[in-house]
Amino acid sequence: TKTDANFTASAASYGSEVGSIMANFSAKNQSGATFNLGDQFGNVVLIDFTADWCVPCREKAQTAEAFYQKYKGKGFIYVLIVIEGSPSAWASTYGLTFPVLDDNTQKIYNMYRKSSIPLPHILDRNFTIRYKVEGFKQAEVEDMLNKLL
Description:
five-stranded mixed sheet, 5 helices, two-stranded antiparallel sheet, single chain, alpha/beta, 7 strands
């Protein structure tokens, strides 16, 4: 076995913070089909959490589809996870064509939560969390996506 300290120190493990690997999860999307994160391996993935009561989330949803369209041809997928509300209502209200997932049980959210939403997570092509910051800071998010895409 390899015992080099640099090798063991750099080995990522599953977790919820930057530098760890996001574990696979499945949830129903806005059409009722099952979305499996593992099917997105090889893409850069932006995962964000939203709820009906979250005003900043609703404001961000108004520009989310244009944001997705800007990057989708580069191996990018946007995933919006609804922790309170209807994924189909979010998708139809804001014209979202990317996966909008039902997490009203908050099973996924409880694995990755901090203290507030929006809470974007950017995963590299190997599902390592490269960005996780409360609030949606568009310039920071785009800067990280441009580095990874």
